Every structure is written in C-alpha cells, then in structure tokens.
Amino acid sequence: MSENRCESYKHLGEECGVFGMYDFDGGNVAESIYYGLVSLQHRGQESCGIAVSDTAGPKGKVISYKDMGLVNEAFTPEHLDNLVGDIGVGHVRYSTAGSSTRENAQPLVLNYVKGTLGLAHNGNLVNAPELRNELAYTGAIFQTTIDSEVIAYLIARERLVTNSVEEAVGKAMQKIRGAYSLVIMSPRKLIGARDPYGFKPLVIGRRENCYILASETCALDTIGATFIRDVEPGEIVTISPEYGIRSDKSMCLPKEQHARCIFEYIYFSRPDSMIDGISVYDARIAAGRFLAKDSPVDADMVVGVPESGNVAALGYALESGIPYGQAFVKNSYIGRTFIKPRQKNRESSVQVKLNALKSAVAGKRIIMIDDSIVRGTTSDRIVRMLRDAGAKEVHMRVSSPPFLWPCYFGTDVPAKDQLIAYNRNVDDICKIIGADSLAYLGIERLEEMVGGNLGICKGCFTGKYPVDPPTGDIRGEFER
Ligand code: SF4
C-alpha cells in the first residue's frame, strides 16, 4: 500500500469519484466536469484529471490534463481553456491500490487501433494481478500500477473482436471481478458501467441536452443537472445522440446478490446525495436514532466528530431528547502540503485539523458520535481533546459495527492485526480510547438503516465477502 497516503484526521479513504458528460448540442463540457469534480472532492484528494474530446473533430483526438492535489489547486483557468470538447470524463483519486503518483492519476487515455478511450474508475478489482500478468505475457506494456489500466486494456482488446465499444465493455466485465463504477469516453459515446454487486454508486443526470454520469447526485446538483436514475448494479449504459440512453442489463444479478458498500452511507458519500433511492442523510439520521435506542446513556449534550459524525449525532439527539451541540471546530484550510504520510505523524494532524470548543463542553457529560473506529489512535486523541477541554464524561457511540476484517473493494480498511477491534471486546477498546463508555451500531441495524430493501456488503464486519477475496493482499501488489 502507498506510503504517500493522503491521511486526514478521519480514518478511512475512499478510492475515487468519477464524472462524465456529453453535450449533444456540441457545447464545451470541461468547466462543468471541473465543478462536478469539485463537488466529488470528498471521495479523493490525491490527484485529479479531466479528458475531453470533440466529437465533430478528428476521431480519437483527446485533450487531457491531470495532476496531484485538489481540483481547485490542480486546474487553473488556462488549463480549462485548453480543454475543449463536447464529451469528457473526469476523476478524483484516493489511492488504495497503486501508489500516489502523477502517472497513476486518472482519467486514463488509451490510444488503440479503433480510436481512443478515456476511462475513469472507482473501486478495486480482486483479480487485477492475474489479469495484469495475463495481459503482460501477451505483450501489454503498462504505464501505471493501477487496476484501471487493466480494465482499459481489456476493453481495448475486446473492442478488436466486437462490434461496439459497449459490447467490449461487457466482455471486459465478464473477466474482471470486484468493485467498479466506470465512466468511459469513446470518440462518439459516453458509457457508464457498474459492477454486478453495485459496490460503488453511479448515477445518470441531464441538463438540457447534456447527459451526465457521476458517482453521486450532489455532483448533479452542483452543475444544475436533474437526476434521471441510478445505473443499476451490473448495468452498462451507453449515451449517444443517435440513441439517447441505451441499457444492457445482461450482467445484472438478482437483487439478493447486490452488495453496496455500506460505508457509502455511513461515511464516504456526501449527506446531500441519494444512492439507489436512499438519502445518505436519512441513513445517518437513522443510524444515530438506532444508537440512541440501543445504547442509551444519560448526558448533557450529543456531538458529532466532523463531518460524517454530525448527522448521526443529530439522529441520536432527536431520538434521545438530549440537546445536539458542536464540540469541535474544524480547520478546513489544510491542503495537501500538510498531509503527513506515516502513522507516527497521524496524531498530530488530528490536533491541527480539529480543536475542541472549551466553552461548549466544559463541565458537561458528552456523547460523542463518530462513524467508525479503525486503529483507535484518532479516537483516543479526540476523547482526550474533549477531556482536556473540561468535559466531565465522554461516551463514545459509533455509527457502524466494529471493523474485524480488511476490505478488498476500494476502501482502505487495513489488515486485521491493525484493527483495534481485532481480538478485543468493546470494554477493552473503551479502555484504550479512554472513554467512559463505548457502543457500536448493531450489525443487524445496517439493512434497516438503508430502508430494509437494499443488498449491502458487510464484509469488513463479518469476513463474509460478496466476492471471494484474493488469497494474498492485492493492495499495492505492483509497488513491490
Ligand atoms: S468490505 Fe466494508 S468497506 Fe469494503 S465494500 Fe464491503 S462494506 Fe464497504
């Protein structure tokens, strides 16, 4: 795994955000893609990029720009002025597989005999190493260490023996296993595809005669587009002026096999997004309410660890009748230059990014809600911060069950022995983090939290994964 990891005071990283747009009237899409990526920035802060093409111009001419850093740092007005095209894809990245370098930034642009592909990918494949070896032994030369290039190669190869790029995407999907939401630009088509389990979200939107694919609905709102629908797990959508939106559902699985990453609702996605018909905000409120019902405690104030703990804290307050308050001030102006890669530095970044509000917490019994505990070092520091600010008691409630297993699908839940809950019970963990009490969301509450009707993945809590995990650790395989 990358040592250059973008480490915030929060605990988990999501792999990426994707965005694609096609203006059937021939207007320039680069600026809207830029704003779409800005609104997906929470999904990845290491690198970003945009690739565009002019569908009326020479077939296969793609202009792209990508760089390290935040979208608003990487792109200047001049960069955007150079990106002229009516079809395009964009990407923000957080690396869970493949190191944090400029070559690994996306979108990937691939030139091959049938033209050019631009590809943006969110997720992790479990069989990328095997596929990469297979491809390498038949002549492929890889420029990056990311799974996404494996997908791009497979599509390019399949395109040589299929009638259309969407058919090639379908054939590639039969070979890849794991989590992926893809946005692909061919010279004349915009294609979206979601893995058959639906690990990662992908939505379709429209603004006048422009069609949009995006990881989250908040990106549609940002650019003034209307939500049309979610891409279904296993579905391939092809967007073109000739046919509008065409759908191929031949890879779809029965609903019972769907396995959306529950952390999209708990933590990754923005609360103003909707995923598969469920509001992220409502799911977090529900989690807070369940915690209040299942693990009540007498206290003076409920607070959230910003940002994703805030909504669950409100849910707890609404259910319990205990006032909701703010205990922390977050410094939002810390850019990449401050990011510290190694564990020994992680704790200091907590303090720089968060400070306790002494006048709000002094003398009070506090219920503090956070979305998860991974290694425990962050929670320990935040509990101490509240005590130092004069809190009389600190009761921690966590809006997810304990992590006991790693994730192989694009979330950097680490190996078992790095997880605080591994081989420890709740009392042990409570002592380590120094709280007066600790309770997690019950695993049986997860389905209810998202309305009771959605197939979800719970692999990192149960060790039962919807897709067989790889035998070795696939993360960072090609860094070694
Ligand atoms: S194992 Fe956990 S983090 Fe990974 S996809 Fe499943 S629910 Fe999400």
Automatic annotation (TrEMBL):
Residues 16-242 form the Glutamine amidotransferase type-2 domain. The keyword Protein biosynthesis does not apply. The active site is at residue 16. It holds the Pfam family Pribosyltran. Mg(2+) binds at residues 308, 370-371. It catalyses: 5-phospho-beta-D-ribosylamine + L-glutamate + diphosphate = 5-phospho-alpha-D-ribose 1-diphosphate + L-glutamine + H2O. It is an enzyme of class 2 (transferase). In the C-terminal section; belongs to the purine/pyrimidine phosphoribosyltransferase family. PANTHER family: AMIDOPHOSPHORIBOSYLTRANSFERASE. This is Amidophosphoribosyltransferase. It comes from Butyrivibrio proteoclasticus (strain ATCC 51982 / DSM 14932 / B316).
